[in-house]
């Protein structure tokens, strides 16, 4: 059927059906875009969460290692001072005799 043999109602119905089809395709495309962008946003949030958690764990480990090293250094320095004070005490006792 060509356009000349169709009634104006049929032509209008065909045009509105074409417009509705385009509108539905557009809505589907926007829905897919929204779904994809939402998935990507959640994926980025989760990756940032994991990265932050990993970074926090690394920082906590570095602080713990630093504190252990400082504690060991303090013990070694106290032992060195105790040894030095014992040596000074021995020298003073021998020198006083």
Characterise the protein shown here.
This protein is mainly α and 97 residues long. Helix content is 91%, strand content 0%. The chain has one helix and no strands. It has one helix at residues 8-95. The longest helix is centred in the middle third of the chain and has 88 residues, at 8-95. The protein is rod-shaped, with a radius of gyration of 41 Å. It starts with 7 loop residues before the first helix and ends with a helix. 0% of the residues are buried. The mean pLDDT is 90.
Enumerate how many helices there are, as a single number.
1
Work out the radius of gyration: 41 Å
What average pLDDT do the residues reach? 90
Biggest sheet details: none
User: What share of the residues lie within helices?
Assistant: over 70%
Q: Tell me what portion of residues adopts beta-strand conformation.
A: under 5%
Dominant shape: rod-shaped
Q: Structural class, from secondary structure content?
A: mainly alpha
Q: Work out the number of β strands.
A: 0
Distance between the termini: 133 Å
Order of secondary-structure elements:
H
Pick out the low-confidence regions: none
Oligomer: single chain
